[in-house]
């Protein structure tokens, strides 16, 4: 070191002092490092340093040569800082001392330790923890000389230079310094471990800055005021326990010492709720005074037995989230040895017991499980409801048990007016009345809850009631805003009568717009109305809607209800899966699943199966053996099961359908078919395998698909029936075409023969000579034309009737009628056909008719005669070719449906379609009429009888060829019979003839006013016969012209010229005087010139009756007759003009419409002149009677 001259002179006056002599007498521990030495080994240390026990041991005894630095990371870090040429930290704390460093001549670094103030130590520790760690290598060791330096060597180095003094120190110090032999990787690893230890050892004497706010809170807490004392006085056992507590990611608390002083980690803060931070450092009784009595037994048991105790889902009420919350925790109390009461004695009896208390918040799972249990229980109860009354009762039963989430319940249902049905109870109705169905957890005399109320009174009971019932979702009610009346808000289950703060209003609908009731549920004050609570209420709302819809529309919406239930079950399963995550909760969910779930060993032993599996398979609950579950399978399907089982054992998942022994029986009847058959299941299974591929078990589920399989078969049968029906329809079209063309061909040929033969006759100007044989041919041809036309009419009538039946348009119109005379009159229509075929017909009235004094009854004679005429026509058709040709018709009466053992009646196709219960049938006594048609035809065998009464069916393919027909007649008869409350049947054997019988239901009625007297009842019992010979004699009589005292003046109003000419010619042949008009306006013009017009009573044209068509151009018939009746009312037309409608519109509605428009009578096309003339005479007679009455009433 160079000095200035002045400095040298000054120094010459100073005494020569040795640096190391000064350091040796310094009471501060000192180290000197040579910064040029890359190994970072201290070159010198004084005697004061050796007084530090731990540091002296490391430096003085050569421990570092045994890699002590790798074992003491804190020492290695201190040496690294001390030997660093340019350290970032001026101070370092180690071994309870504050070390500072000084660099001299950029070559030497002197490190001195001192006992500074605690603040200085803490600051230093904080700075060194924040500073980046240096990684300078210390790889080589310095070899100390083995011999001691000589005195001359020391003296020669004792000059004033620092280098010389250091060199002298090296020779003088015979004590070897420790030489660390660790390599760079060991020191780096040690430093990294030191960092981890510092993070864990946050309770050090001079701790670094806390890593979390909770650490900071813990460190700054006044522990000196507790029984544990300040942190620096804590034992190593307590520190270790605290380290473990803060390292535990679970919520956990530590209770230390006899007073059980409490401390807890950061995760525990959520559990503590609003008790944090007040319970930190408190004794157990101070911290948990409200629950201390409940947990004291657990602590005592753990203390006395030394074993941990576990409490699953323990209930606590904790102030958190701003209110006293219902909470559940699964916690453990684990005892372990704490500090010893006396020092120096190694005895467990002298040790204190500490408790470690980990806890898990299970609030959400427990409450979700509780709510799911309620939903499943209520679903089981309400799903059995078959009507609304049962539904409300089952809902009350479900809500009756105490439930923390349902504090009270008020149930109202809609009581509709008589004019409003349940399906019309929309939210817009204002005439609803509400009935209280039940109130749960209320006193019987609770004021303010009306038993019955209108919409207006409900508005006083619940503010904004109309908005509540129109809401599509549940509405929250609060006491604080007045939406929840205080009269129903008081919680009767609370000891202090605490008010329920919130409730929810649930409108109950069977469909989207059909409101049938509502439910008010009080909510739990100890649980916020959070998302989970809302989901629970929404699930309950959907459950109520589904169950109610099933009860109200059980038959009509059964499939829809099943889909809703499936969707609800799926959502419940998803919700349960999310909330219930443990194996126990999964087992509970499996037990409640709507499918059978099972677990089978590879040996075939059933390990587990849920309740649904037992119910579906009927497997005995206590009789499980290897492969015993095969006994529930259908025997024929066992080979299939063996194949699938082999796949499972080979590790392949399977999915297959199989049958069970248990039959499938349902209460449903679909389209007349009972739902039932085999029980089918859909089995899905997969093998559970180990990591090496060994099958450990079989997991799977089974689903009941019996209804689906039945529906598949049902649809297949219906498809085959549809194909068969289509084939029958095609055959029907072929038969109908054949039956229509054959008569047309005969008609055309007869007409051609008549027209062609007329040209060959000899004639003069006025007379034509026609041979008798030609006239007889004309008569035969006309008969043929009439028969062909009637045949075509029957086929057309059958087709039209079938169309009405298919469209439900066929009406049954009852009138007052005497049945026996009506049947006699209708049978006259068969006179010609019976004579032509030489068939004898006999009509008999049974004595039961007179026994019951049957006279006038209410029934539809046209429909009854339609059935009878069809049966008689068939009898004639099948009797014509037989040698014996007899037909007997019998009429009987009874008060109950007839029970004839010889007649096999067909079951009703549609029992719901019985029109005799309508108001038009009156209120008289029910009476049944039984009619039998017995023929001597060829009869029917068993196969032919099975085809009767089916649509488009005949007894055999030859029937159509031999007898003709459409195959619709008996099918229509069956339908018409059932519409009138009756049935039809047959008794027949091949070769012995057939007896067709049917009965209908009617009501007695009074004789109508003005009714024509009929024969006495006894005279009706005399059989009425039609013999072919008698008919033939009547036909051979020469025709006599009908002579009338007053000629008929007929006006024909018809737009069809051909019909106009034909009808005019026939009426003229009958002796009528005929005029024609082409439409309604011409008819009115003719009336203006007739005797009916005012002022022309004596000078006008004669007119007796008008025959008017309905469908005409310019003015149709209905409009024309309305004008005529209006002119009558105004007096322009004098008297009543008889008007008869002649139309092809044959439907009953069209006939009724014509009469309402003003027609006196209706004759439908086609018709015969012998049938028309009596109707004309009848209307002329009625008109004449009216004229006489009017003349008698007029003044003389």
TrEMBL record:
User: Would you say which domain of life the source belongs to?
Assistant: Eukaryota
Region (Disordered) residue ranges read: 125-159
The Histidine kinase domain covers 735-1004
Q: Which UniProt keywords apply?
A: Kinase, Phosphoprotein, Transferase
Write out the GO MF terms: phosphorelay sensor kinase activity
Instruction: Report the residue ranges that make up the PAS domain in this protein.
Output: 582-652
Q: What is this protein called?
A: Related to sensory transduction histidine kinase
Q: Which residues in this protein are found as 4-aspartylphosphate?
A: 1109
Q: Which organism is it from?
A: Rhynchosporium graminicola
Question: Where in the numbering of this chain does the Response regulatory domain appear?
Answer: 1049-1180
Its GO biological process terms? regulation of DNA-templated transcription
* Annotated ranges, domain PAC: 654-717
| SMART domains with a match to the protein in the record | HATPase_c, HisKA, PAS, REC
Record's compositionally biased regions (Polar residues): 147-159
């Amino acid at each position: 070191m160079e000095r200035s001259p002045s400095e040298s002179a000054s120094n010459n006056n100073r005494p020569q002092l040795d640096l190391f002599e000064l350091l040796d007498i310094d009471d501060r521990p000192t180290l000197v490092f040579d910064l040029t030495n890359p190994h970072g080994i201290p070159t010198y240390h004084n005697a004061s340093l050796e007084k530090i026990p731990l540091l002296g041991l490391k430096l003085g005894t050569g421990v570092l040569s045994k890699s002590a630095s790798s074992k003491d990371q804190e020492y290695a870090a201190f040496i690294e800082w001390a030997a660093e040429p340019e350290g970032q930290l001026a101070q370092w704390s180690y071994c309870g001392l504050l070390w500072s460093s000084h660099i001299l001549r950029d070559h030497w670094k002197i490190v001195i330790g001192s006992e500074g103030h605690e603040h200085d130590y803490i600051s230093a520790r904080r700075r060194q923890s924040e500073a980046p760690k240096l990684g300078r290598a210390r790889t080589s060791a310095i070899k100390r000389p083995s011999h001691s330096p000589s005195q001359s060597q020391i003296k020669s180095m004792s000059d004033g230079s620092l280098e010389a003094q250091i060199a002298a120190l090296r020779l003088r110090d015979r004590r070897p310094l420790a030489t660390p032999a660790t390599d760079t990787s060991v020191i780096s690893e040690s430093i990294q471990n030191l960092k981890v230890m510092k993070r864990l050892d946050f309770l050090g004497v001079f701790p670094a800055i806390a890593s979390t706010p909770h650490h900071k809170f813990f460190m700054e807490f006044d522990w000196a005021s507790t029984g544990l004392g300040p942190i620096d006085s804590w034992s190593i056992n307590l520190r270790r326990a605290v380290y473990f507590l803060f390292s535990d990611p679970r919520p956990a608390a530590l209770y230390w010492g006899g007073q059980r002083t409490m401390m807890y980690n950061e995760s525990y803060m959520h559990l503590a709720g609003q008790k944090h931070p007040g319970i930190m450092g408190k004794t157990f009784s101070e911290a948990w005074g409200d629950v201390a009595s409940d947990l004291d037994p657990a602590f005592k048991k753990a203390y006395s037995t030394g074993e941990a105790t576990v409490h699953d889902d323990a209930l606590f009420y904790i102030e958190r989230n701003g209110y006293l919350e219902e909470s559940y925790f699964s916690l453990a109390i684990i005892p372990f040895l704490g500090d010893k009461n006396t020092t120096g004695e190694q005895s467990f009896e002298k040790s204190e017991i500490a408790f470690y208390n980990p806890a898990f918040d299970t609030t959400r799972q427990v409450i979700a499980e509780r709510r799911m249990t309620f939903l499943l229980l209520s679903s089981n109860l309400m799903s059995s409801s078959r009507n609304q009354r049962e539904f409300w009762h089952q809902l009350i039963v479900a809500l009756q048990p105490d439930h923390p989430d349902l504090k009270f319940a008020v149930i109202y249902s809609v009581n509709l007016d008589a004019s409003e049905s349940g399906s019309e109870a929309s939210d817009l109705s204002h005439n609803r009345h509400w009935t209280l169905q039940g109130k749960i957890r209320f006193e019987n005399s609770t004021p303010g809850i009306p038993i019955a109320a209108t919409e207006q009174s409900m508005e006083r009971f619940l503010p904004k009631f109309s908005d509540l019932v129109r809401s599509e979702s549940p509405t929250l009610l609060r006491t604080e805003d007045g939406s929840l009346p205080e009269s129903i808000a008081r919680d009767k289950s609370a000891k202090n009568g605490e008010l329920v703060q919130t409730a929810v209003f649930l409108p109950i609908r069977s469909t989207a717009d059909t409101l049938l009731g509502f439910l008010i549920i009080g909510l739990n004050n100890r649980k916020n109305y959070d998302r989970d609570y809302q989901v629970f209420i929404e699930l309950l709302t959907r459950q109520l809607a589904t169950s109610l819809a099933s009860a109200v529309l059980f038959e009509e919406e059964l499939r829809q209800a099943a889909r809703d239930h499936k969707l609800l079950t799926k959502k419940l399963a998803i919700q349960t899966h999310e909330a219930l995550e443990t194996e126990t909760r999964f087992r509970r969910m499996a037990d409640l699943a709507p499918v059978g779930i099972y677990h089978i060993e590879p040996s075939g032993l059933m390990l587990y199966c849920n309740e649904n599996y037992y119910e579906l398979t009927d497997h005995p609950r206590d009789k499980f053996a290897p492969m015993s579950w095969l006994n529930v399978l259908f025997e024929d399907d066992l080979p299939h099961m063996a194949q699938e089982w082999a796949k499972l054992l080979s590790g392949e998942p399977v999915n297959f359908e199989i049958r069970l022994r248990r039959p499938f029986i349902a209460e449903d009847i679909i389209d007349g078919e009972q739902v039932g058959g085999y029980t089918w299941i859909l089995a899905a299974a997969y093998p559970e395998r180990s990591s090496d591929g060994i099958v450990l078990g079989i997991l799977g589920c089974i689903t009941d698909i019996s209804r689906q399989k039945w529906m598949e078969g049902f649809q297949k049968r219906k498809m085959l029936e549809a194909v068969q029906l289509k084939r029958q329809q095609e055959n029907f079209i072929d038969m109908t075409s054949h039956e229509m063309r054959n008569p047309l061909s005969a008609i055309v040929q007869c007409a051609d023969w008549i027209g062609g033969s007329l040209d060959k006759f000899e004639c003069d100007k006025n007379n034509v000579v026609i041979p008798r044989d030609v006239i007889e041919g004309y008569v035969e041809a006309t008969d043929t034309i009439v028969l062909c036309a009637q045949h075509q009419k029957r086929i057309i009538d059958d087709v039209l009737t079938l169309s009405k039946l298919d469209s439900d348009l066929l009406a049954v119109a009852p009138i007052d009628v005497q049945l026996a005379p009506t049947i006699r009159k209708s049978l006259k229509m068969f006179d010609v056909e019976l004579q032509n075929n030489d068939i004898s017909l006999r009509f008999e009235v049974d004595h039961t008719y007179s026994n019951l004094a049957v006279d006038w009854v209410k029934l539809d004679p046209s429909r009854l005669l339609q059935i009878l005429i069809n049966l008689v026509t068939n009898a004639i058709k099948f009797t014509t070719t037989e040698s014996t040709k007899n037909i007997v018709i019998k009429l009987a009466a009874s008060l109950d449906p007839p029970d004839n053992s010889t007649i096999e009646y067909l079951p009703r196709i549609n029992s719901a379609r019985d029109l005799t219960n309508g108001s038009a049938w009156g209120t008289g006594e029910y009476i049944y009429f039984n009619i039998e048609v017995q023929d001597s035809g060829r009869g029917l065998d068993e196969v032919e009888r099975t085809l009767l009464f089916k649509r488009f069916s005949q007894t055999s393919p030859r029937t159509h060829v031999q007898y003709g027909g459409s195959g619709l007649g008996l099918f229509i008869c069956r339908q018409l019979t059932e519409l009138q409350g009756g049935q039809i049947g047959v008794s027949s054997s091949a070769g012995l003839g057939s007896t067709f019988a049917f009965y209908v239901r009617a009501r007695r009625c009074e004789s109508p006013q003005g009714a024509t007297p009929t024969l006495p009842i006894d005279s009706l019992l005399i059989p009425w016969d039609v013999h072919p010979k008698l008919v033939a004699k009547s036909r051979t009589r020469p025709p006599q012209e009908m002579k009338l005292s007053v000629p008929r003046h007929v006006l024909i109003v018809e737009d069809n010229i051909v019909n106009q000419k034909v009808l005019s010619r026939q009426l003229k042949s009958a002796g009528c005087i005929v005029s024609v008009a082409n439409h309604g306006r011409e008819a009115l013009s003719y009336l203006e010139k007739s005797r009916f017009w005012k002022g022309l009573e004596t000078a006008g044209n004669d007119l007796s009756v008008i025959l008017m068509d309905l469908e005409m151009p310019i003015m149709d018939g209905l409009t024309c007759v309305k004008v005529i009746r209006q002119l009558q009312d105004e007096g322009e037309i004098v008297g009543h003009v008889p008007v008869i409608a002649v139309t092809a519109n044959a439907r009953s509605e069209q006939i009724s419409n014509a009469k309402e428009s003003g027609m006196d009578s209706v004759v439908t096309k086609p018709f015969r002149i012998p049938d028309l003339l009596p109707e004309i005479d009848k209307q002329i007679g009625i008109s004449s009677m009216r004229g006489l009455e009017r003349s008698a009433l007029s003044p003389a």
